[in-house]
Amino acid sequence: MGIYLDNAATSYPKPSIVIDKISDFMKNIGATAGRGAYKSAIEADRLVFNCRDNICKLFNGKDPSNIIFTYNITDSLNLIINGVLNQGDHVITSSLEHNSVWRPLKTLERDRSIEISTLPCTNEGISKACDIEKLIKKNTKLIVFTHASNVLGTIQPIREIGAIARKHKILFLVDSAQTAGAYPIDVQKDNIDILAFTGHKSLLGPTGTGGLLINCDTNCIRSLKSGGTGEDSKNPYQPDYYPNKLEAGTLNVAGIVGLGEGIRYIYDLGVQKIRDKENEIIEYALKRLEEVPGIHIYGPKDAKKIVGVISFNIENMSGEDIAFKLDKEYDIMIRVGFHCAPTAHRIMGTYEIGAMRIGIGYFNEKQDIDALVNALKNIVSEK
């Protein structure tokens, strides 16, 4: 494997304990959770509960039963957006959202006549929380915000936004795709009602894992799916208690087991240690990339204001061609295009051309950045 700089899409490599735990489960346990009283089924139950408990501890949740497993963060966000918003409701969101938020909202705008307001930001993705107050209406039902842009990397002021949401008794949903596991999150201090997370990025788990942390006393979330829960089977309706209210059907137990190990790995290291290490690489990358002739780096140049996401273009050169050469000739993997976030590209002025993006993870080192910069210099010199 070459140099992997696409951790904003999915993290790689995974800790060996994640792989070993999944393999052990598949070889030696294999049962589904919540569906049997025999030993291996009970062990599967225990492993799933342990993962819920570890997620709860990582984000300072109150009750492991309020951890809902889904199959990715898109699934999580759709579950809440579609399960909360009704005909004519108003929602406030950022100008930087991924399509996992933007498309469900636009679909409900068309199908349920909801109203959407977007909080303005600078071309570096910097938002002012106080401006949220100006957008609130009598029918505002939900504020949904990314914690950090997947294109610019800019960290958003969610604690302040959450405080405003609490003041006005508006549900606050946070998309932590780029921050969970890489940046400290405390749902109590950050005033988060519902945290959506994915397992396969900085939580170091496998694909096909994600979830929600419900941190509010609310019955306003509709069940979008009904089916087997392994208990209360005579009830013709989906149970109204968590997690069963929002979990129907067989869970991805093998994936959850792997996710649990990824979270344990993070918990043992400490999120702040991970953030400090990544921040050092981000700062180094911002400095070294400036050496590339004709480069334009988007977003804040202060490493403390971003997560490990840096987007850039090189003057008069195709990002697709550069990314292809990086892979083919230098074995360096980056992302190029629109990153499923067209509104962010509109903000930063790349709506027509897209951008190249590197995603820095905990297992990257400074020599990876050196190799990227040297390769980019060589490619530019060849044009």
Automatic annotation (TrEMBL):
Its cofactor is pyridoxal 5'-phosphate. Its EC number is 2.8.1.7. The keyword Transferase applies. One of its GO terms (molecular function) is cysteine desulfurase activity. The gene is csd_3. Belongs to the class-V pyridoxal-phosphate-dependent aminotransferase family. Csd subfamily. It comes from the Bacteria. It holds the Pfam family Aminotran_5. This is cysteine desulfurase. Transmembrane segments: none annotated. GO terms for biological process: cysteine metabolic process. Keywords: Pyridoxal phosphate, Transferase. It catalyses: (sulfur carrier)-H + L-cysteine = (sulfur carrier)-SH + L-alanine. Residues 3-372 form the Aminotransferase class V domain.
